[in-house]
Design brief:
Strand content: under 5%
Shape: globular
Helix content: 55-70%
Order of helices and strands: HHHHHH
Radius of gyration: 17 Å
Structural class: mainly alpha
Oligomer: single chain
Number of strands: 0
Number of helices: 6
Largest sheet: none
Length: 137
């Protein structure tokens, strides 16, 4: 999983600075193996800066790790709305949906991403949809 340390340029709005501190504390807790504290700090960061894609994605990923994928789905849906052209949040959303027990949206999202990838670059091999089956597990 990716991890990015955030620092804020001066001058900074106090809420943003507090969000960055909470995010960095969340990362430290996750690295130390304290997922409960990591989620708590990530919630705090997301509450302080609710329109930040990175903070919402970080919290969503922690929730999926903790087995709370149903709670992560709305976070990833919000991230997708914030940046609809970015494939990565769509993939995270699809994985959260699958972990939450909703396999059909997962399969549809993965198929859509594969189609977009194939259309984006001529060297990407074309998949034969009849012989290619997405893993249902």
């Amino acid at each position: 999983m990716w991890q990015i340390r955030l620092t804020a340029p001066a001058p900074v709005v106090p809420a943003i600075e507090a969000a960055l501190e909470a995010y960095n504390a969340s990362m430290d807790a996750q690295q130390a193996g304290d997922l409960k504290l990591a989620i708590g700090k990530a919630r705090e960061a997301n509450r302080l800066s609710p329109v930040n894609e990175l903070l919402a994605s970080w919290l969503g990923n922690l929730l999926v790790q903790a087995g709370e994928a149903s709670e992560a789905v709305p976070l990833f849906e919000a991230v997708v709305r914030m940046n609809p052209d970015d494939a990565e949040p769509k993939l995270y959303l699809a994985m959260a949906q699958k972990a939450a027990g909703h396999a059909e949206p997962y399969h549809a999202a993965v198929a859509d991403l594969l189609d977009k990838l194939q259309n984006a670059h001529p060297l990407v091999p074309q998949l034969d949809r009849k012989s290619t089956r997405l893993n249902s597990s």
